[in-house]
Protein: TetR/AcrR family transcriptional regulator
Amino acid sequence: MEAVLSRKEQIERTATALFKTKGFSATSMRDLANALGIEAASIYSHIKSKEEILQRVCFRMAQEFFDALDTAESINGTATERLQRAIAAHVQVLTKNTAASAVFLHEWRHLSEPYLTEYLSLRDRYEGRFREVIREGISNGEFSVPDEKFATLMIFSGLNWIHTWYKPDGKMNPEEIAENLSAMLLTGLNNTQHNTSVNPIHLNTPN
Amino acid sequence: MEAVLSRKEQIERTATALFKTKGFSATSMRDLANALGIEAASIYSHIKSKEEILQRVCFRMAQEFFDALDTAESINGTATERLQRAIAAHVQVLTKNTAASAVFLHEWRHLSEPYLTEYLSLRDRYEGRFREVIREGISNGEFSVPDEKFATLMIFSGLNWIHTWYKPDGKMNPEEIAENLSAMLLTGLNNTQHNTSVNPIHLNTPN
DNA sequence: CCTACCGATCGGTAGG
DNA sequence: CCTACCGATCGGTAGG
Structure:
């Protein structure tokens, strides 16, 4: 886990943490330099601009979400199973780097064009794939829900709220979070009761 | 609805819209002045500082949320009914002013002390009251959920995601959003199936 | 509500 | 990676 980071990676990681805590706009290049122990001007040997850091974080995270979803969807199954896997994949990416996730979720609006438009379209495509699974589940009778779009919204709300409370040393690990989330979401979605197969997990305390 | 606004209210409302779109830090007093059609210096005849506007918005919204919850909880009933009413109250406040809600939910971190601490403690108390209803529902058997804290988190995630997609002229009005949200959340919470009593509502299209 | 202005800080560059 | 510095802009004040 403690791999050697290039200076550029160090800058990106430190900036991400600052962007998360203070926000992109309120973080100055001098704040960043200070956290790195160098002068502000020196940062520019490694990156072109402050916004470039934000771009890299946002699009790297987008890539990670897509990759995880691709892997999750490469396995066949019922709509329920596929949704569960998609949720688990999303939670994994989210919890693996909470700072980058927070930046991805909240600081993207400081992207300038054409990055902003591209970011928005990536998000749309990603959400569309979840909506597709739900649509299938509705049409084959697995899910019973008044509005497919609303259901997708609910899933993403639960998913993207995680970074606000998740602590790596908390009582739930990412797998348990995903299972609990799926359980809570699916029992609301499921028409017939395979509640027992969704098994919400109880707490083990690792610390 | 189109009441006469004092200059101070005008400033607050315009600032709120800008804070929502650009964020607190990225909004300058010159941006605000420009939107109002006056000079930046003139704003200071009405307010003491940029942060004062943020403080007013955050604590006014906190007050509105508490007032709505007080009213909702003044009516007795089962835990299910009380949770439904609390959710509806929250949705009402949220949708009544989406800009102020967005600022309340995302810009509070730019509050300085002691306001930050007070804000955080207000939120904690508010969430605690939802947690209390859930706790009661669990202990009297209405709800079946592995973790009370997790359930509360899920409710707030669904609740506080609304402002990102809610459109006043969309196909769901606040009451319908609340009912759909309750339905989706409660059927996940409910042990016995009073699904039919929760009645998720279908779309009427006002526009 | 304006003009005129303040010191501080911003993102970023030149040149080594 | 640093020193030295740039023009622009920041939140805010004085005085009317």
Q: What stands out?
A: Chain B is about 70% helix and 0% strand. Chain B touches chain A at residues 21-26, 106, 109-110, 145-147, 150-151, 153-154, 156-158, 160-162, 165, 172, 180-181, 183-189, 200-203 (CB under 8 Å). The radius of gyration of chain B is 19 Å.
